[in-house]
Amino acid sequence: MAYPIHRMRRLRATEPLRSLVRETHLAPSQFILPLFVCPGEGVRREISAMPGNFQLSIDELVKDCAEAASLGIGGVILFGLPESKDEVASGAYAEDGIVQRAVRAIKREVPRLLVITDVCNCEYTSHGHCGKVVNGDVDNDATLEWLAASAVSHARAGADIVAPSDMMDGRVAAIRKALDAAGFANTPILSYAAKFASVFYGPFREAAESAPQFGDRRSYQMDPANGREAMREIELDIEEGADIVMIKPALPYLDLIRMARDRFDVPIAAYQVSGEFSMIVAAARNGWLDRDRAMLESLTAIRRAGASIILTYFARDAARLL
Description:
Blueprint: H1 15-20, E1 31-37, E2 44-46, E3 54-56, H2 58-70, E4 75-80, H3 90-93, H4 98-109, E5 115-119, E6 133-134, E7 137-138, H5 140-157, E8 161-164, H6 171-181, E9 190-195, H7 202-208, H8 228-240, E10 244-248, H9 254-263, E11 268-272, H10 274-285, H11 291-305, E12 309-312, H12 315-321
Parallel strand pairs: 1-3, 1-4, 1-12, 4-5, 5-8, 9-10, 10-11, 11-12
Antiparallel strand pairs: 2-3, 6-7
Helix pairs in contact: 2-4, 4-5, 5-6, 9-11
């Protein structure tokens, strides 16, 4: 019997051949680096659950932003740790809030770097929930006012993109209306459109000091079992004016990234969250995985699934390798 004509291994024989026919490519410009900004000066406090990531004062943050720009990384997204917290999340929308001051500093020192701001309340509320608590639950519509005010204050400070992550119904429309009324019609919205109530956020809650003080966030973040509902959430956010939509987390939801890519004609982002990062780092430190290969393979999987933008704590390391 004649040997088959098609030998699939022919194009795998050498790295130049593999590179020539590679279907999915990574580039630093596809990455967004999450950064945590805190009060003080000269602060670079490592996050124990996320080795190599830090809570940074504004002066140190600017240094990391300059490095990100030099590596060709697509941009940064900022999470703020305020000096104090209260029940009305006032630090989230204060004109001199920690994120607002950080944005202004970055735009002075690294003006060409794309700056995205996370628009949420959990880091700023004394109870750790993402909105106004009424009778033990988050009041959806009252929270929209806080979110809209935060987005406008970020845009006024110079943010290039605002990214609501709270999962309140109607928040994209409320933010779009507020931005337009304040003269920021050209400021895009990157919506955390399908954000799941995931166990993989654990390390982030240490980093952002944002764990809820009672209950959990399952009444507003999505049930991990629901894929069709995720498509409905994305569809509604696009109808309300979202320019970019995001699925969070990434690796456990690759099927939904692909489903969204096939269904919607807008840029798709995915967040490789803290737990995904920390699992790889921990396994590598124990000698169970090659850190660099696991990092690039995971990012390639997210890209192959259909995400054109990847928020990842590996942004700097991956950029150096690429």
